[in-house]
Amino acid sequence: MPSILEFLRTxxxxxxxxxxxxxxxxxxxxxxxxxxxxxxxxxxTLKYALVQSPAAVxxxxxxxxxxxxxxxxxxxxxxxxxxxxxxxxxQDESLxxxxxxxxxxxxxxxxxxxxxxxxxxxxxGNIDRAQIKTLLGLSDRERLRLHSVVAxxxxxxQSHLVPMREGSTPYYLDENRDYCVPKRPMSEVLLADx
Length: 194
Ligand SMILES: Cc1cc2nc3c(=O)[nH]c(=O)nc-3n(C[C@H](O)[C@H](O)[C@H](O)COP(=O)(O)O)c2cc1C
Hints:
alpha+beta; globular; 7 helices; 30% helix; binds flavin mononucleotide
């Protein structure tokens, strides 16, 4: 069992995957982690859609956009590297109290629960919301706002946290096509330490 920090260091964004399905039980455990996440006033405004049939996953994959910092030839998963499941996260605006902090906490729990089984993920906001709702059969549910989707699968690459160089935040690939993800140093983000 790694320390929590080692776990969080490796719980990164993954964008290329092995052609090996994620077990249904793992996906449902990730959903359960999201379902029980903390939320403002315990209002529980989030709803989910699970996509794991290969045909529907392939359709979803056409409606998401990968790695804006990289040329598509580098950032998009090729055939055989695509995710094997997606989870869509909706905000139910028919309920009071919708807020993005709740969505962020649920996404954090969902992706951590998946990573506990070695399942990597990519939270995706650059998506075709209208087409995804249609694919999911939810286009007539006007009060359901598609917040994001999470692509899931067993990673086919590594991702390393690296020191930031000259204030540059974009991730990049190294010679092994592994992701390098610069993070700002503690000295920059810790504003007060009394
Ligand atoms: C709200 C949110 C939306 C994101 N949308 C996308 C996306 O549409 N496509 C993509 O490839 N990555 C997306 N990402 C992944 C980020 O690019 C990634 O988290 C960031 O580069 C830092 O990498 P890390 O997660 O490994 O720390 C998103 C992440 C978050 C939190």
